[in-house]
Input
Amino acid sequence: MASFLRRHADWLCSHDAAVDAVAEMAETAAAARRVINPSRVRKFRVGPCVMGDCEGELVAAVRAGADLLPGEVRCDATPEHVWSAYQWRELDRRVSQRHEIGAPWLTPREVAELCQTSMSNVYRLASEKSWRRRTNGRRVLYAKADVLASVA
Output
């Protein structure tokens, strides 16, 4: 491909579609780089921000080659809402308090009925969408807000 481009560079550069061709080649090269050297950061949603009336979501980022735990959890709406690893215990306490106060929870069967889907799809969706869940003995419950947000 490189020898073809070198040999026909003058003709290709004067063609009307040269700009589009260069853009497509740049996209192809970028896609190839992503395959060879994939992103080294994995982000995952922790849940809604626990600070007052903040509408943001808490997000944790795990960098490849680093510890399996993220270095910090931060709010995607308010940069000041950030918790480093040594503050996670406090963050966990706040998350637990917020979830306990009036947060409705649904059984998998209730989710299946609400979403008009099968039970196996409920478990798949819960995993893919990272729904908050809690267990009561062997019984699993999902946060209604998470379910509604992902199927709305």
Q: What stands out?
A: The mean pLDDT is 80. The chain has three domains: 2-36, 41-100, 105-151. The chain is about 45% helix and 20% strand. The two ends are 47 Å apart (CA to CA).
